[in-house]
Every structure is written in C-alpha cells, then in structure tokens.
C-alpha cells in the first residue's frame, strides 16, 4: 500500500460496505529507531506515544492517526517523490530552516534544491527524505478538500 492511498483515506468516510473507514496508523521500517523517531519529533514536533514494544516507536500525527516506526530496515527502498507521506505544518519557513541547520536537503517536486513551490490551490510545499529515504511532502496548510 502506498502513502498516497493511506493518506487519502485519512478522515474520509468510505461507504462501500456500510462501515466508516479511517486511517489509524501508517507504518514504516527504520534502520535506527531512535534516529528516525528523533527526526520526526524534532523536525515536525510530533509527540512520542509511549509503547511497551522495544522494537517500535510511535508518534502522533494528529486526528487520531499515528506513525509507527518499526525496527528492521536493512536497505533504502527505491522511491520517488510521487510516493510520499504528506503533512502540513504551521510554519514552513521554520521547518526548512531546521532542515538547513541539520544538513537535510529539501526540494520542490521537480527536485530543485532548496526551492519551495506553490500548488494550484495556493498551498506552498517542499519535499524532504527522512533518515531511511522515505519522501515527505511538507505543506504550509491543508489543501483543497474535494467531496
């Protein structure tokens, strides 16, 4: 399952079987749990969720959705910016400054370094990779929601 599909379901009732489906969590594998959890916590302010599981780190994405980081990544997963986790932040300039201070490259969708882009709906966004190579789209506010 790809990030885009999972996040499309987030907060969106689905009526096919007569039930309502919502995203509960997204899981990724990491080579170093603490490094990965620290990245998401420090870069985006995600709150760590206590778990008794030693080979997992959980972070709160908001709206009842969690990011589960699992131990066991052995090699980077080939991917491109089209397969990504998308989040929005209150202050995109603060996030890009954090990336710059920590030597974390960020781009626009086309891959141009240190360049923000503005979507058709006025949302400014960038792309960055986490410590394990997963792409993250970071926007300055939520985009247009279509029904």
From TrEMBL:
<keyword id="KW-0456">Lyase</keyword>
<dbReference type="InterPro" id="IPR050383">
    <property type="entry name" value="GlyoxalaseI/FosfomycinResist"/>
</dbReference>
<dbReference type="Pfam" id="PF00903">
    <property type="entry name" value="Glyoxalase"/>
</dbReference>
<dbReference type="InterPro" id="IPR004360">
    <property type="entry name" value="Glyas_Fos-R_dOase_dom"/>
</dbReference>
<dbReference type="InterPro" id="IPR029068">
    <property type="entry name" value="Glyas_Bleomycin-R_OHBP_Dase"/>
</dbReference>
<dbReference type="InterPro" id="IPR037523">
    <property type="entry name" value="VOC_core"/>
</dbReference>
<dbReference type="GO" id="GO:0004462">
    <property type="term" value="F:lactoylglutathione lyase activity"/>
</dbReference>
<feature type="domain" description="VOC">
    <location>
        <begin position="22"/>
        <end position="141"/>
    </location>
</feature>
<protein>
    <submittedName>
        <fullName>Lactoylglutathione lyase</fullName>
        <ecNumber>4.4.1.5</ecNumber>
    </submittedName>
</protein>
